[in-house]
Amino acid sequence: MYGIFRECLVDLQRYGGLGNGRSWIIFWFLLLISSIYLIAKESDVRKKIIFGVIPLVIVAGFLFPITKKLYVKVARLESANTYYRILWIIPMYVTIAYAFTKFIASIKSSVKKRVAVGVLAVVIAITGSCVYANEHVYLAENIYHLPQNVIDICDRIKPTEDEGIIRAAFTPELVYFVRQYDPNILMPYGRDYVDHNYYTGVLKVMKEEEIETQELLYYTRVDLDRYIILPTNKRLDENITNFDVKLAYTIDGYNIYEDILISENREKEREDYVTIRKNMYE
């Protein structure tokens, strides 16, 4: 149980911005004092519950190990990796903004109000970041405000209505955008794995300067990834098309490989490939 609690705590820290030093403490501390302040000072019962009680209940429930065990049991599909999304239902920024606005409005002295606004501005600046410094912020190429090459690739591999969903292993620099455009394309890892360096076999292999082809296919076949998308200049130690994989398309500097064992439902051959190599790569 303690191990599960530690996992939940780390998720809580990362959600608050663990990658930015200790700023995650400031983030959660602001939410805590805001909720407590609204519980004590808010006269409207509905606002008191929504902005005061509910955030604290959700955070407490999130850290409770039984909650995660139930979530995994009920949600099933990749649920352990998406448990942090429970935190999405907390009205965090609204709660903090409303609490501080209410507090400043309660100050009678105009001088003190100006000081409070100044302090709040400093807190916002310290706990935030400049979005224009992000490498993914650039002039829009289309109405979706996503890289055009991602759209072109997704349009080419997107599932039909009968297929419902497909699985595809994208090179790390593209994973940020794929499911923003098409949620029916599932991937073995997402942006959190890239940003926080979480471990997963596919990502580990893809980040290597030269990819070990059979190791990559082992992990993608375990994950049932029909497509593998790699930069055209990415080096592989063996020709991937020698292993029941075909080069389906080349789009905007990326090769799109299709795994024939998966697209043709050759399940026995896929299982044999994985079984033979399991001891080598696990």
Shape: elongated
Helix proportion of residues, in percent? 40-55%
Profile the largest sheet.
5 strands, mixed
Count of structural domains:
2
What is the CA-atom radius of gyration, in angstroms?
A: 24 Å
Mean of residue pLDDT values = 87
- Return the structural class: alpha/beta
Q: Tally the helices.
A: 13
User: How many strands appear in the DSSP assignment?
Assistant: 7
Query: DSSP strand (E) fraction?
Result: 5-15%
Low-confidence stretches: none
- Could you give the order of strands across the largest sheet? 2-1-4-7-6
Distance between the first and last residues' Cα: 26 Å
Short description:
The chain is of the alpha/beta class and 282 residues long. It is 54% helix and 10% strand. The strands form 2 sheets. A 5-stranded mixed sheet has the order 2-1-4-7-6.
Question: Topology of this structure?
Answer:
Blueprint: H1 2-15, H2 23-41, H3 45-63, H4 65-75, H5 92-106, H6 110-127, H7 148-157, E1 166-170, H8 178-181, E2 185-186, H9 191-196, H10 201-206, E3 210-211, H11 213-222, E4 227-231, E5 235-236, E6 245-251, E7 254-259, H12 260-263, H13 267-281
Parallel strand pairs: 1-2, 1-4, 3-5
Antiparallel strand pairs: 4-7, 6-7
